[in-house]
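Q: Fold this one first, please.
A: Sequence and structure below.
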Amino acid sequence: MKKITLTLLVLSSIKLASQVGISTTTPTKTLDVNGGMRVRTMVSSPQFSNAVSVVSLDANDVLQNSTTLNVLFSSTVYVKQRIINLSHGL
């Protein structure tokens, strides 16, 4: 009985504190990717189904999903890479 209790305790604690790192040995979020990333499908929130969303990085390089209005009316907007005008195609 003691072994079963100890095993359940260990397994439950691993689930609560699990973090996965790709190309990093010290992940700081649930999924921590050091390198390029591709998102093939993004689930839209029903709350903002008609709003245009912007995926951005915060100051700690954590992905965030915001509405365009939140980005436009924020006090500071940081641009990390060049901006491409897509109206004429790539």
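Q: Good. Now the second chain.
A: Here it is, same layout.
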Amino acid sequence: MAKTKPAAKADRKLTGRELLESVSKEHQYKMVALDDLGVPGSVKVRSLTGGEYASIMARQFRTEGDDGKVVTRNFDGHTVRMVRAGLCNEDGTQMYTEDEEDRVARFPADVLIRLSGEIQELTAPETTTAERAENLK
């Protein structure tokens, strides 16, 4: 069971506009060194937006019934999609488009795993992979 943090005491209820303004934030960025994996140099990665993350996660699970029980888990391509979405140029723009996902799929597995982990940490730093999976049930 996922651990949850105690809810912060709310001073007042936020309006929809106030909520949107308070949660809007810039991407978080990080340079990731890959020298130890045989790739000379570093690349820049960024956190994902909620929409990007939801799109990637939605492709992994199929649910059925009123209770939303997960009936299919398909992790095929998950890491590639995560890296493709979070890998960016120096100016913060995405390095690869969705149409170029096949190029990212040709990266060595250890590079994909390292980059995916860094992107996930930037996106949801206070949750573990197990907690993220639990929250999808």
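Q: Anything worth noting on the second one?
A: The mean pLDDT is 81.
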